[in-house]
Design goal:
The protein has about 220 residues and is α+β, with helices and mostly antiparallel strands. The protein is built from 7 helices and 4 strands, in the order H-H-E-H-H-E-E-H-E-H-H.
């Protein structure tokens, strides 16, 4: 009979070791999962996380209209020129600066993600059109003030849309926000071109063909 208590204690110790090993494995897997949802350059959430979270927000809105989300699409103006003229290291610095700027300009419960090369998107939970506009306008003003202390000003084109006016599905909302962003980019470009004409800088007026094609697509979405 004396062997049973010993066997019992040995079994308990083995189970404790196995449990500790499982906890360690779970911690490692949780860390890997977190890394899978992070952009390594900026530290923001990535496109995978954005897509999954927006899908969840749309599902929530379909169950309760009071939870309707808005999204923002933000694109860095002339980013290719930054990379080409100042190098990719500078381009990376700009991306990190924009990521920090955006995260510091939205609310604590909004989700800002880097979803492409120079493209960022933000999910604004339970935010109607008026609420989205009330975020975008101060963001533009904050960028204007921040640019006063930068050696090279940074321009951002911003498109916004709200469920369900901007689309009843996540993909439809993304398409609408994308179109709105390119309309904003065209507006800013037109303003820049007008200033260039006033200054006589006629060599800066030509618009890239690729941008024109994208703006044509944006106009069709926006109608």
């Amino acid at each position: 009979m004396g062997q049973y208590p010993k066997l019992f204690h040995e079994t308990i110790e083995r189970l404790r070791r196995e449990n500790a090993g499982l906890r360690l494995t779970l911690t490692e897997l949780t860390g890997y999962r977190a890394m899978a949802y992070r952009d390594p350059l900026t530290g923001l959430r990535n496109r995978r996380y954005f897509d999954e979270r927006l899908f969840e927000e749309v599902q929530r809105a379909q169950r309760s209209s009071h939870s309707a989300p808005s999204i923002l699409m933000i694109d860095i103006n002339l980013f290719k020129q930054i990379n080409d003229s100042r190098g990719h290291a500078t381009g990376d610095e700009v991306l990190r600066w924009v990521a920090s700027f955006l995260e510091g300009s939205i609310r604590s419960y909004d989700i800002c993600c880097r979803t492409g090369g120079d493209e960022f998107m933000a999910i604004l939970p339970s935010t109607d059109r008026e609420g989205a506009n009330s975020l975008v306008l101060p963001l533009r003003e904050k960028l204007r003030k921040a640019n006063q202390s930068l050696d090279q000003p940074i321009g951002l084109s911003i498109g916004a849309t709200t469920w369900p006016e901007g689309g009843s599905t996540a993909q439809a909302m993304i398409s609408t926000a994308d179109a709105a962003m390119y309309v904003d980019k065209r507006r800013q470009r037109a303003t820049f071109d007008q200033k260039a004409k006033t200054c006589g800088a006629t060599g800066w007026i030509r618009k890239p063909v690729q941008l024109e094609q994208l703006l044509d697509v944006a106009e069709r979405y926006a109608k």
